[in-house]
Specification:
The structure holds two protein chains of two kinds.
Chain A: H1 4-13, H2 18-37, H3 45-52, H4 55-77, H5 81-97, H6 99-105, H7 107-113, H8 123-133, H9 139-155, H10 163-177, H11 193-219, H12 221-237, H13 248-268
Chain B: H1 3-22, E1 47-49, H2 54-58, H3 63-72, H4 80-85, H5 89-92, E2 113-114, E3 133-134, H6 156-167, H7 175-187, H8 208-218, H9 229-232, E4 244-246, E5 252-254, H10 276-286, H11 293-306, E6 313-315, H12 318-335, H13 341-359, H14 374-399, H15 403-428, H16 436-455
Antiparallel strand pairs in B: 1-6, 2-3, 4-5
Helix pairs in contact in B: 3-7, 3-12, 6-7, 8-11, 10-11, 12-13, 12-15, 13-14, 14-15
Classes of the chains: A mainly alpha, B mainly alpha.
Amino acid sequence: MLSQRSRMLCAKNCAPGAETMVDMRVAGCLVLLMLWSGSGALKAAPLDEAAERYRPYMIEGIGDALAGARELRERAAANDLAGAKKAWISARAGWERSEVFTAGFVPELDAQIDAWPNADSGFHAIEAKLFGAGRADVESDAEALVENLNNLHGKLRDMPLPPQGLLDGTVRLAYEVGESKADGGESRISGTSLDDMRNNVAGIDFAYRTIFADALKTADARLADMVTSRIDQLKACIAAPDLPHVDIRTLRRASEELVVSLQAASAKLGLPRPTLEAQWR
Amino acid sequence: MTVRHAWVAFALGLLLFGIQARVAAFPVDGDQTTLPAKTELNEDALDKPREVFRSEIAGGKSYSVNLGNLAFSSPSILGEVARQAGISCGTCHVNGAGNAKFFMPKMSTRPGNFDTTGPLFNPKANNFVLDPVRIPSLRGARYLAPYGVDGRMPSLRDFVHNVIVNEFAGPEPSPVVLDAIVAYIQDIDFLPNPSLGPGGRLVGKITESERRGEALFAKPFPHDPGMSCAGCHIPSGGFVDHRQHEVGSGGLFKTPTLRNADFNAPYFHDGRFDSFDQVVAHFDRVFDLGLSAQDRNDLVAYLTAVGDGALPYERDGAGASLKEIDDFASVLATAIPAGDKDIVALAVDTIGLELRELTERYPDRKDTSISGGEQERSLARTALKEIVLTLRRIEMAVAEGRINDASADYRLYRNLVAAAVPALLTRAEPWSLFNPAVHDQHYGALRQVMQSRHSSH
């Protein structure tokens, strides 16, 4: 259905009958997208146990981010710019390793913590002050970051971890890693976009190996090899000394071939086809 | 100034102001980029030059023209630096026109020019002199031999080859791709100008000033009766004489066309002049023409009338982007059945890059500068990502010799881009960067953040 705003726009701008036509076209699109999403046989139970093995990694990653944020808060209070920058980078690493699950499992917190470009709080707001303006007065921002990360950390032990959600997150992150960084990337002010990518790929690698690799090897060894080789290609790309030397074309190819492989893997694993955007299924 | 002149000036003012205001663009920045910080590519401009193809008027573009357009838009035919930076021929020659806002530190001295023998893209071609040349429009290039600002190359094919291999350090292009790029460039027409009649004469409702300017244009120079403006810019289809001349600008340079020149600023071989007024003043001074203020105004009026073109800009949007992508993708209809791995790879790489850029026109939910339309944006992004992956599956299938699988995915692609994807993009457009208000909010936020960086260093 069209949103109220779309209806108003359509009522203002479309000829009589056009809204119905748009409705039908959009309905057709949604059907196609549902077909894209596919429907695997529901035999994912063995993966539930494997997904549990991801939990300690998740807790450790957010724990590292939280420890870094607390250190950042202290360094900011001491007006220690160099120390605050170092703590920000440390906190950021833990967060980026955890992006396989953050966007899909805690979208509201994710949007607050990783908002971009001119956020009021969160990593990038602090980045702009520390690395852009060269100011260490980020105490209140750091406090909000600590609070959000602490809130998230407290939920992790009991948070349900459906394998589908983790596959969705792995696929989304694999696609994102292949995006162009020609403009300096997401963390361009601090110059740490390549670190973001390395931590993202580490998260993808761990999630795949821990949760899905064994089951896929059993179901389709060739496909499992393909996934592994594409992850290895991503690792090779981001081993470059700096962002300008990352082979962007090879990175994008590896990213997309990994996603294509994981889409094919979902059927073999008895899971629906993974989604490519958070909050849409 | 006549009423018509006043209107033209007013319209140009509005247009220029509108463009300037709209494309207060976001330059490349940070210290982790391939291109120098503060590079301005003007890629986020909402108004793009309109491209007119000869073959579209004749019925449709050929495989070769579409392949050439694809290659022209592909960083992968150029060398490593350009590939890493996402620079293609089309970065400078936007839709075959120039790029007056383009500026690259170390390679430009002003917006609109570029040093093809500079240090960045091919150190071997570096002449250690900052001597940029104006980025020319390619409209009507088939009428405008010889090529290069100094007219050093009679063959467009040789010129294109030199740009790819020497100036941008690209790999040796295949003859098919090189011929295709030439076919594409030769297919780009001038924008039509209803004020120009046979023999390059002004026709229709011509002002007195324009008529006087036309006469002055053909009048012999007072101190050299063998010369006149029209002696080099011969009133004709191209307003050129295909020769090089010394006109007091520091060397021999070929006569540039006046067709569509209203949209080709800056002027002269190095782009030193911003306006026809400055150009006319230069000739008046160098050739001691003794022009009165009225004469100068009349010549500018004439040049403006000759240099006009219908609908020079068009608003960028999902429709225009998808149409171009659709033209690019049409080469797959030939390349897949032929099992042509190289062309399929070129198409998938180039279209994928374009689609990823188009995806970012629909900001994700983390973008703080935009509110509303979350589901619409998410669906648009999903649809575009699915197309990217469908194309990648095609490439993988062709590489493995699975032509039937590739053909099936190509049919899926065609079905999706025919209706479903345009509908989703249209639905999300109010919250996309194609909406001027959203565009300005988004880039304003980016500039605000990046300014914090520069204000402290």
